[in-house]
Structures are given as C-alpha cells and as structure tokens.
Design a protein that fits this description.
- By secondary structure, the chain is an all-alpha fold.
- It has a domain of about 45 residues.
- The chain is built from 3 helices and no strands.
- α2 packs across α3.
- The two termini are about 30 Å apart.
C-alpha cells in the first residue's frame, strides 16, 4: 500500500507513507537520476496521467526517510545498451 496505516511505535507523529512508497520513489530517483524536488513532481505527473488518486511524498519526506529505508536495485552498466524494450 502507499499510505501507512500503523504507527512506527516511537514518540511523535506516525509516518504518512509506507516504506514501500519511499523505496519506490528512491528507485525512480536512482533510475532517472532526478533531484528530490523533480522526483516529487515527476511522480505526481505519473499519477495524474494514470488517473490514480495518489499523492507523492514530499521531497523533504523522501530525504528524511531515505536514511532508514534500504533500497536494493542494480545501477545500469556504463557499457553499450544490450536490451531495448
């Protein structure tokens, strides 16, 4: 899911977005090499084009949560392109 429904168990306000939402945003950021502010607008544009009623996490939320969320993806190689979709 995109929005977090459970509290993190510590003091303070709970998270608005799940770890999966932050991880997805960070993967998109890594693939397209976007700065955080551009990433936020890019995700909002994608959701708008898909007519999905979701809002992307703010750039500050992504920045803060990036320290605690582990992202596993391979960076593209620097060699020639082998596959085109």
């Amino acid at each position: 899911t995109w929005h977090c429904k459970e509290h993190h168990g510590k003091r303070g306000r709970g998270f608005t977005f799940t770890d999966g939402a932050i991880e997805t945003a960070l993967i998109v950021k890594g693939i397209f090499k976007l700065p955080l502010r551009a990433l936020q607008d890019f995700l909002d544009s994608i959701f708008g084009l898909m007519d999905v009623p979701l809002k992307s996490p703010s750039y500050s939320c992504i920045s803060k949560r990036a320290k605690t969320v582990e992202v596993n993806y391979r960076l593209p190689s620097r060699g020639p392109v082998a596959h085109v979709v």
